[in-house]
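About this split. The held-out portion is used to measure sequence recovery: a designer receives only the structure tokens and must propose an amino acid at every position. Recovery is the fraction of positions where the proposal matches the reference. Here is one held-out target exactly as it appears in the evaluation file.
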């Protein structure tokens, strides 16, 4: 299965979560999405959004400390 990528770098809260929500709405259950961001808040905000909406966080953490990039990977739940 292909993992789609969402570039949310240089967006500030709440835009990374909003863009994630918009993209997930177009995905089928079981598909995966990788979100790249420079706002460290995504490490808490996107997992919280996933818990509320029934999606599974596969990975969340820094990608490049020097560039202040963060990644959250999720699997779309049964009710996108």
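Reference sequence for scoring:
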């Amino acid at each position: 299965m292909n993992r789609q990528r969402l570039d949310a770098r240089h967006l500030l809260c709440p835009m990374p979560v909003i863009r994630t929500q918009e993209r997930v709405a177009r995905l089928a259950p079981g598909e995966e999405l990788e979100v790249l961001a420079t706002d460290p808040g995504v490490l808490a905000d996107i997992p919280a959004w996933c818990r509320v909406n029934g999606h599974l966080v596969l990975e969340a953490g820094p990608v490049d400390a020097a560039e202040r990039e963060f990644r959250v990977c999720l699997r779309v739940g049964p009710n996108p």
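Annotator remark: The helical segments are 15-24, 42-53.
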